Amino acid sequence: MSGEGSREDLLAEGILGILGPAVEHVDQKIADVRKSQADLREQVDQLADELRQLSEKQKVPVDLDTYIRKLANSRKRVLLVNDILQNVQGRVEKLHKSVVRETARQRAAIEAGGP
Q: Which residues lie in coiled coils (predicted)?
């Protein structure tokens, strides 16, 4: 029976060993995407400001207000995606903490059962 427990512990540790790095990788990628989203939001804001200034200073044959509104809508979508990414990152961080806790628990159980 202790052989079965030992195999289960080894299997659990192996699974956690695989999940831990995968979770860390996903967490890093989410952080990278969030930074890109923040950069994009900043660029959209700058472009909208420049279009507003151009529209105010010059009579342009094209109605820039339409494009300014489109940029504002794009900004809203970027913010929405950022909120979703923030939620996902929070969940991934919770999963990572859970994996770390479970790994520590499994190691402690293996060491306690060892010679």
A: 30-57
Q: What percent of the chain has pLDDT over 90?
A: 21
For residue 63, what is the DSSP state? -
Report how far apart, in Å, the C-alpha atoms of 52 and of each of 33, 45, 65, 81, 87 are. 28, 11, 8, 25, 33
Task: Count the domains in the chain.
Answer: 1
Instruction: Look up the domain containing 80 and give its range.
Output: 2-113
Does residue 48 contact residue 75 with C-beta atoms inside 8 Å?
A: yes
Instruction: Tell which residue, 52, 46, 88, has the closest CA to residue 69.
Output: 52
Distance CA 36, CA 56 (A): 30
Residue 80 has a pLDDT of: 92
CA–chain centroid gap for 62, Å, is 39
